[in-house]
C-alpha cells in the first residue's frame, strides 16, 4: 500500500517556489549543475535551510558536487504542480489588475489568464494581454468552460469579499487576494493575501531601525 506523502509546510512551499525561479534562470543560462551554497545564496537562505527544505523531496544532490539544475527544477515543478498549465481568472482591472493581466512572466511559469473581469462598463471590451475584459456576470460561465481553479482579486476592499464569494461559488478553489482586506472563504478554498501597503510599512520600519544611531558610550578617564 502506498504511504501518503508527508505534508510540506507552507513556509517551505514558498521557498521551493523561489528555488524553482532561481533554477529556471540557471537552466535558461545554460547551467547544468549548482552547489548548495550558490543556490542558497541566490535564493536568500542559508545552505542548511536549503538542504532541509529539499529533504522533503527525497534524495536530490550529490555530496561535494551539488545539484543537477534541470533535474531539481523538474522535481520541484512536479511537487508544486506547475509542470502543467493552470487556468486563472482575474477580477478587477484597475491599474494593478491591468499590470497583472499584462505580465508575461506568469505564462512562462505555467499560469495563464483565461478570463479578465470588471464591473465598470467602460473597461468591458478592452483587450489586455491578449484577453478581452468581460462583465462580472460572465464569471460563472468562463470558470465552468475553462476549468479555472485559481482566482486573483485586484478590486477595491469594499467589494473583495463579495468577489471571493462569487469565485468560490463558481468553483474556484484557490484565491490570491491583493485587496487590503482579510477574506473569509468556505472550507476547501485556499486564500493567500498580498497586502502591498503592509509590505511597504514593514520595509519602512526596517529602514527606520537601520537608521537609529548606535548609543554613545562615554569613556571615563
From TrEMBL:
Protein name per UniProt: Redox-sensing transcriptional repressor Rex
Domain of life from the UniProt record: Bacteria
Cross-referenced InterPro entries: CoA-bd, NAD(P)-bd_dom_sf, Rex_actinobacterial-type, Rex_DNA-bd_C_dom, Tscrpt_rep_Rex, WH-like_DNA-bd_sf, WH_DNA-bd_sf
Cell compartments where the protein resides: Cytoplasm
Alphabetically ordered keywords of this record: Cytoplasm, DNA-binding, NAD, Repressor, Transcription, Transcription regulation
Residues that coordinate or bind NAD(+): 92-97
Ranges annotated as DNA-binding: 18-57
UniProt keyword Coiled coil, yes or no: no
Domain CoA-binding: residue ranges: 81-182
